[in-house]
Specification:
- The structure is a homodimer of 373-residue chains.
- By secondary structure, chain A is an alpha+beta fold.
- Chain A folds into two domains: 2-204, CV3147-like domain (CV3147-like fold, 3-Layer(aba) Sandwich); 223-347, no CATH class.
- In chain A, 31% of the residues lie in helices and 27% in strands.
- Chain A contains eleven helices and 17 strands.
- Chain A has helices at 6-19, 27-39, 67-72, 79-91, 110-118, 139-142, 168-181, 195-201, 206-224, 227-234, 336-342; strands at 2-3, 45-47, 57-65, 97-100, 122-123, 125-126, 150-153, 159-163, 185-194, 203-204, 238-253, 256-265, 273-279, 281-287, 292-295, 299-304, 321-327.
- In chain A, helix 1 (6-19) runs antiparallel to helix 2 (27-39) and helix 9 (206-224) packs antiparallel against helix 10.
- The A-B interface holds A 86, 90, 153, 156-165, 170, 173-174, 177-178, 180-181 and B 86, 90, 153, 156-165, 170, 173-174, 177-178, 180-181.
Chain lengths: 373, 373
């Protein structure tokens, strides 16, 4: 158990940006909002799942919608809190802890903002160990917690409650349809879960992991060496490629950012290129010859070649010099159950096998959570 | 106050089919379901709005979605009841009466089914005096009753609650998006209203009017004369045109049935034709020269030329011999407030003026309700 500080938020924003694999929303706005909460004198405690009573009531909160909308339309700031309040009214009891559904991007920080606004602690852990574009892709519902009741709220106080939906993919469809009507972005709160359910399904320690990654990056940046290499090692991953972005294709489709980015290797003499397919997050990296380099759910993280500053999907542009870091997915995402939701086939790549990256998510000795059954 | 009988349901289905102006869903399935409720020994009382206490809690219930879906996918039968139950949970008190939101088509009968299922009375009146495709087009919300909380439920027990939406057109968008996700059809319950609010906004007596129209049709059919002419007169309208359907254009678009029907006059020597534009309901009738014959919100009802059997939009087809009955809209739909929601411009016909049909909705002496302010 520890308290959130401004320094920690700086580090979390960087680490969550890296683990966001391009998605989850840019953490920058979220960081500013969280800092504003601290400046108002509010405090937030981070609690490891093992410290949570079995009977406690928890929900995950965050923002739903295409990240690009979050950049172009500043949120009102209480969307996720309102969604949690709507959920509390529906279930008839108070939420005692909030937990990130994804550690990637802005949704790692959203629960800290809600924790500060509501005066409740935030769980050190999440349901993805990274970012994913759809809500059925989180371990809570993947491993059997009923996805509803769930709530969405918008900037003007409208809220929508979903109930009786046992299939998370159906809730995703419903939620996406409503989010589009809400202008492309909404705050969410779902699923309500007990402490016991949380402990069975959460990927523990990922908030601390993200802070650690940000810490490594800042330390290396301050003249100690190689931010990209160091952060890759700290995450348990490796640098897959370094080069210049030479093509970005991006479109907004059904509430998602879809497209691809092509990166040309530094050594222009051999002109090697890789292409990364995107659906809010970086999904699949292939060589120019079509050879698989990394495949979802493994993490494909695009960062600035010098500073290791994470580059989210909506900020990709021609000419950026970047490194691609590959990190093996958390064990919770590699079970057969999980791969049905987050493997390449779940993103429409029926013919792409999941080829595991070597290494251990979070580095050797990182608590992988479970048992998930 | 009177009880629903099987005979009355037969008449209501015909009358509601006529007042449905092509939409509101085919009343046939609803009639069978309501008859099944009576056969199970359940009873339903019809109560005039003037008999409802000011403090009573009322909501309107029915089905949302393109009528063609209701024909192709049989409903489970408790969608609207479940929506009402979800609404009751949300508002924390029991609904004491249900009221039709539209008297046209299946949505005139849906409240009778819910009344039988829940054991509560049904109000003699509705919020349209006809059928309309969108929920902001009912007098309850048009005249200021907040549209939410409102609920949608589907055939498998999923429910969605909307809250904090003050603009009925926004609720329509949200509800339509969810209905599409629910497979194109859903039961709804909204808005919760007091007896006093009901009495200020309802168009009273329309359930009885629909039964009367069905009664006239059956009487005339049984050898007494001219069903079409008699029912037009009983409704306070007139026969505008009689002929053969020579063209039907119809498509499903954004959850609506849209298109047009062309009818060729009986006297083939002069080959006169009229064309009626459709969006779930019949909207605008024009002569071949483009002259306006009847314009929404006035009622344009297509019935079988011989039997006066109403023909809903989804049953229109080449070769049917039909009569077109025109009925002046209820006074509640002709105020400036109402015309903004249900006049031709509200359906995208910015350049079409509302040219009132002569006559009085329901015939002379029919109680037009109000005051609506």
């Amino acid at each position: 158990m520890y308290s959130v500080t401004p320094d920690m938020l700086e580090r979390l924003a960087i680490g969550a940006g890296i683990l966001g694999t391009g998605g989850g929303g840019n953490p920058y706005n979220g960081k500013l909002r969280a800092l504003a909460q601290l400046r108002m004198g509010r405090s937030v405690t981070i609690v490891h799942p093992s410290e949570v009573p079995d009977a406690a009531m928890i929900t995950s909160v965050g923002g739903m919608g295409a990240p690009v909308v979050g950049v172009e339309r500043i949120s009102q700031g209480e969307e996720s809190l309102r969604a949690m309040r709507a959920l509390e009214r529906e279930i008839g009891c108070a939420i005692e802890y909030v937990v990130p559904s994804e550690i990637g991007g802005g949704n790692s920080i959203a629960p800290i903002i809600v924790g500060a606004q509501a005066g409740i602690p935030v769980i050190d852990g999440d349901g993805m160990g990274r970012a994913f574009p759809e809500l059925q892709m989180e371990t809570y519902v993947m491993y059997g917690i009923p996805p509803t009741p769930g709530a969405l709220s918008d900037h003007s106080g409208r809220s929508v409650i979903f109930n009786g939906i046992s299939d998370p993919t159906t809730l995703e469809r419903y939620g996406r349809a409503v989010t589009i009507q809400m202008g492309g972005g909404a705050g969410y709160a779902f699923p309500p879960m007990s402490g016991a359910e949380l402990k069975r399904t959460v990927i523990p320690g990922t908030l601390s992991l993200a802070v650690k990654l940000g810490d490594v990056v800042l330390y290396e940046r301050s003249g100690h060496g190689d931010p990209v290499g160091a952060v890759a090692e700290a995450a348990g991953g490796s640098v897959l490629f370094t080069g210049k972005i030479v093509d970005v294709e991006r479109r907004l489709e059904g509430g998602f950012s879809r497209g691809s980015v092509t990166i040309e290797g530094k050594d222009l003499d051999n002109g090697e290129r890789i292409k990364i397919d995107i659906q809010n997050e970086n999904l699949i990296a292939r060589s120019e010859a079509g050879e698989l380099i990394a495949v979802v759910p493994d993490l494909i993280c695009i960062v600035d070649e010098e500073s290791a500053e994470p580059i989210t999907t909506e900020l990709l542009r021609y000419g950026l010099r970047v490194s691609v870091i590959g990190i093996a997915a958390p064990e919770a995402l590699k079970t057969d159950t999980a791969l049905a939701y987050v493997g390449p086939a779940a993103f429409g790549y029926a013919d792409v096998p999941y080829v595991q990256l070597p290494g251990i998510y979070g580095g050797s000795g990182f608590d992988q959570g479970g048992p998930w059954n």
